[in-house]
Task: structure prediction
Amino acid sequence: MTAVRIHFIGTGDAFGSGGRGQTCIRIETPSTRVLLDCGATALEGLKRAGIATNTIEAVLVSHLHGDHFGGLPFFLLEAQLHSRRSRPLLIAGPPGVQARVRAAQEVLFPGSSNMDYRFRTDFVELPERRPVDICGLHVTAYPVSHGSGAPSFALRVEHAGRVFGYSGDAEWSDSLPEAANGADLFVCEAYFFDKPMKYHLNYRTLLEHRSSLNCRRLLMTHMSAELLARLSEVELETAADGMVIDL
Result:
């Protein structure tokens, strides 16, 4: 297979605009399979795509909002009760990721955070601007402006000379060109068409800064109903649930 395959499980916003699933991207190499974000609808999306949770070695979390990590309590419980997972699972994300995931488990399924699981779950807090190895992928986190009760990140994933970048949810900042620099694919949120909104990008702002993003290919994601209704006016390429891109 190709060096890196990107499979968009969910490309929607927090509210399911356009009937899209919440953020979840599967990154596949010949030796590993990792999720980037695991929104609340991720498990449904994975099953629709025929992807077994047991095949996922790690989950990278960009920030701690429910439409980006809220699927983890369901993922973990399904792995325990139905898939009968035995291999370890690694969850890597911003500082506080373990406490937030465990708290979400308790809210949704009381007692599930301290069950006697068949598999080990390890948590890693990603440092800023320093690459770390996650299942053979070089992952670098760049701080962005997005209020989530913890640091929020844009993420850059490198493997075998291929580079995939992802903005997470974020206002425009110098971190986005850093994450996109030299990328084969950069996936960037654009929430509204031109309406400004704190902590988010809109299409017009992204278009104005396109020349600052030194990437081979750019895709918009996390689009609101307002932007989806105006796609005929959009010049940039957009992601969609089920899309697969080989890098």
